[in-house]
Specification:
Blueprint (H helix, E strand, L loop, with lengths): L8 E6 L6 H17 L4 E8 L2 H14 L3 E6 L5 H10 L4 E6 L14 H14 L11 E2 L1 H22 L1 E6 L14 H5 L3 E5 L1 H10 L6 H12 L9 H18 L5 E6 L4 H6 L4 H8 L5 E2 L4 H14 L4 E7 L3 H7 L11 E6 L12 E4 L1 H7 L9 E7 L3 E10 L5 E11 L8 E6 L3 H10 L6 E5 L4 H11 L3 E4 L17
Length: about 500
């Protein structure tokens, strides 16, 4: 996926001048060795920061190396002022970690007291109003710190991606989808640009792409991807023209941004003028790290992009759609494991999920739109979905959303897609999330989240949670385990 930032990690050690500087440098080297053994690319800065001039020298070295995500490592107690000045002056995501003592044989001349130094550093972090990544337990031996850095590279990718992101939207939200409200002020608060356009603009760029030399090759690529599922070969050139139009528009209008995503009006007028549904093209762009949300769901597309940055896999956007019938659960037997019926639901959308995220797929027509637009006739303008069963495996459902009063709130829940035939249409799968019933009531309903959820096809909750904290999002909900009550949850229910 080319639409994601490349994280270039650097590590700087700091040292308090009354501690041996060699201790911090030696420990830094061991952390770098541990990162290499875990295949985590990190560049070791040779400058060790003891004072403010050292911080400026380190910043120059960081700039010369092209570092865009920085690990500040307390190899000993560390000087809290220069340490936090370094974090403040660095223009990118920052992580703090500290060295644990290695051996009871070296607790006189080899004791670093970084456990204590992190406390002083944290106080100065607060004074400077910084929001670095601090692991849950930020003190460790080199192998443990390397693991923390491994998490940080994914967190940093989200932060870097959003800081260089532009969302292109086409059309207003449909009347019946006001739940996908999108106050744009919070986008600027987190460094995301937005360019809103009309449906007429979308039609214009599509018409202008007619005759583009890339259409033939893209249509051929579509045919190859669809294989036996290419049920409507006659519309591939139209779809290819639409893909050319969107990608060309993004390239011309990124401006000061580096990455782009879309939130587009996709029905009901779209089909009458374009004479196809855009779902398959949306799926193809998502597979390249360019989510295209339907129904002008701006925060849905943003959430998809964050999932892509966290997992480095194509994301999708689905309706949290319907319950799983009891008879299906009974027929499934052991396939549903120890999940309760209320832990299960079906994630569905018309056909925007990338082919790589599906167990099987083919191009079909959008049944719901067909009922509305082409009743009692063969599908024509409602063709172009990519449908099939979403593949089994681990997932995270996630959404970042602005409330009407421009406050950001979010939810995250790790789960899985079961290898269970959903027996329905669209891009669809049976999802399992622990305590989903309570999560549905007290988070999704209780906090007024819309029906769309972004899906990462890897457990990404830990990374997304830490990224949200760095972004300053305070309201982050998750699927609380049994016995851990939500605010407002009735403690007497069922007793």
């Amino acid at each position: 996926m080319k639409n994601l930032p490349e994280v270039k990690l650097g590590i700087v050690s700091v040292s308090r001048d009354c501690f041996p500087i060699e201790l911090s440098q030696k420990r830094r080297g061991k952390v770098v060795e541990a990162c290499r053994s875990k295949k985590i690319p990190v560049i070791e800065m040779k400058t060790t920061v003891e004072n403010e001039p050292d911080a400026l020298k380190a910043l120059q070295e960081i700039q010369d190396q092209g570092i865009n995500a920085l690990v500040i490592y307390l190899g000993n107690f560390g000087p809290e002022g220069p340490t936090t000045i370094l974090a403040q002056k660095f223009n990118g995501p920052v992580m703090f970690a500290a060295a644990a003592e290695e051996s009871g044989e070296h607790l006189i001349n080899g004791r670093g007291d970084a456990y204590c130094g992190m406390l002083n550093a944290s106080y100065n972090i607060g004074l400077r109003k910084l929001r670095p990544y601090i692991p849950e337990y930020p003190v460790g031996i080199p192998e443990e710190v390397a693991g923390m850095i491994g998490d940080f590279q994914h967190i940093a990718r989200i932060i870097l991606g959003l800081s260089r992101l532009k969302i292109f939207s086409f059309g207003p939200r449909p009347q019946d989808f006001l739940a996908c409200n999108a106050p744009i002020k919070p986008l600027y608060d987190i460094g995301v640009e937005i360019m809103e356009n009309s449906e007429l603009d979308l039609y214009d760029i599509y018409q202008s792409a007619a005759g583009d030399s890339r259409i033939e090759s893209i249509a051929g690529d579509m045919a190859g991807e669809l294989g036996a599922g290419n049920q409507y070969p006659d519309i591939l050139k139209k779809l290819a023209q639409y893909e050319v139009a969107l990608t060309g528009f993004m390239e011309k209008n990124l401006g000061a941004s580096q990455f782009g995503i879309f939130a587009n009006k996709c029905w009901p007028a779209f089909e009458k003028y374009f004479t196809f549904v855009p779902c398959y093209v949306n799926s193809r762009l998502a597979s390249r790290g360019i989510p295209v949300s339907c129904e002008v769901d701006i925060y849905g597309s943003l959430s998809e992009y964050m999932c892509a940055c966290a997992s480095q896999l194509p994301p999708t956007l689905l309706d949290i759609n319907n319950t799983v019938p009891y008879n299906m659960i009974r027929e499934a037997g052991n396939a549903t494991g120890d999940y309760k019926s209320s832990d299960l639901f079906m994630g569905f959308h018309c056909g925007n999920t990338p082919a790589s995220c599906m167990a099987n797929h083919s191009m079909k027509f959008q049944l719901i739109m067909h009922r509305l637009m082409e009743p009692d006739k063969e599908p024509d303008i409602t063709r172009g979905t990519l449908e099939g069963q979403i593949r089994a495996g681990e997932i995270t459902i996630f959404r970042l959303q602005s409330t009407a009063d421009t406050m950001l709130r979010s939810y995250i829940a790790d789960g899985e897609v079961l290898n269970l035939n959903p027996k329905s249409f669209g891009g669809i799968g049976v999802f399992a999330v622990r305590e989903m019933g309570r999560f549905y009531r007290h988070v999704l309903i209780g906090k007024r989240f819309p029906h769309h959820t972004a899906v990462a096809f890897r457990h990404s909750g830990k990374v997304l949670f830490e990224a949200l904290k760095m972004m300053g999002v305070d309201d982050i909900s998750f699927n609380q385990p049994a016995g851990m009550l939500y605010a407002g949850e009735n403690p007497f229910d069922g007793h």
